[in-house]
Design a protein that fits this description.
276 residues, mainly beta, four-stranded antiparallel sheet, 4% helix
């Protein structure tokens, strides 16, 4: 875990694990780099930035002061990985946060009097059975309304004050990984699932539990299978043209024998001169 200063991006990041260990040596088994040390699965600051909570793969949640980085308290109510931590955003509830886990529970904590060691688990919401709860979200309109979604394909809307389930939203056909409230419509919530749909829901009256799914993203149609084009039969190979037989070599014409040289005609003897 690292902390970056957005106003000074060139400044080296603070290694939060090392800082927390230095100031809280008792956390050595939980925050050291030793092999087998539980990994941290979530970190979330409170709305007023006075505290931050760190979730672990073991189900523990550690609460620290944002000013001194000293640990304030620890909760170990979950027995599986902590998936989400969400602090309340309402002024009347700023010292409360909720968590959800792979153990199927949603838990609400009150840390208002944390300095007096008056920590407490105020509510446990459990209507997802043993299915992992994957996300939670506080309503921005009603301070005591909380939503959760789960591996069980359902979404629950809770009254955080009484831990009563107000609505159960069913319609997804696979795990619901994320949920949020519409920013301007207080009765509209949005969910996303691994069934590849995002759905919008209009909440009805809690007495009738009537909820209307007002839209969903269409599933991507399956690409039709490409018809196999029959293979073009291979063109038979053109038979090779037989080789033209070689023309036999013309026998060499025998050389004409040389004509013998004609013997030289003997010179006619000179006629002797007649005597005077």
């Amino acid at each position: 875990m690292n902390i970056l200063d957005p106003l000074n991006p060139q400044k080296p990041a603070i290694k939060l694990n090392e800082l927390l260990l230095e100031l809280n040596p008792d956390l050595e088994p939980e925050f050291s780099k030793a092999r087998g040390t539980p990994k941290k699965s979530e970190l979330r600051f409170s709305t007023d930035f006075s505290l931050f909570a760190v979730g672990s793969t073991t189900g523990k949640i550690f609460v620290f002061s944002s000013h001194t980085f000293l640990m304030k308290t620890t909760f170990h109510e979950h027995n599986k990985l902590v998936n989400r931590i969400r602090w309340s955003t309402h002024d009347s509830n700023l010292n409360s946060f909720a968590s959800c886990s792979g153990d199927g529970k949603v838990i609400l904590y009150d840390v208002k009097n944390i300095d007096q060691d008056n920590k407490g688990v105020t509510r446990v919401f459990q209507k997802h059975g043993s299915s992992a709860v994957l996300d939670i979200a506080w309503s921005p309109f009603r301070c005591q309304t909380l939503m959760s979604c789960s591996d069980d394909k359902r979404v629950q809307i809770w009254n955080a004050e009484t831990s009563e389930s107000l609505f159960t939203l069913s319609g997804h056909v696979n795990s619901v990984f994320t949920c949020c409230w519409h920013p301007t419509e207080e009765n509209v919530v949005i969910t996303g699932s691994s069934d590849q749909t995002v759905r919008f829901w209009m909440l009805g009256s809690p007495d009738s539990n009537e909820n209307v799914q007002i839209s969903q993203t269409p599933e991507t149609p399956e690409t039709p299978e490409t018809l196999e084009i029959p293979e073009t039969p291979e063109t038979p190979e053109t038979p090779e043209t037989p080789e033209t037989p070689e023309t036999p070599e013309t026998p060499e014409t025998p050389e004409t024998p040389e004509t013998p040289e004609t013997p030289e005609t003997p010179e006619t003897p000179e006629t002797p001169e007649t005597p005077e």
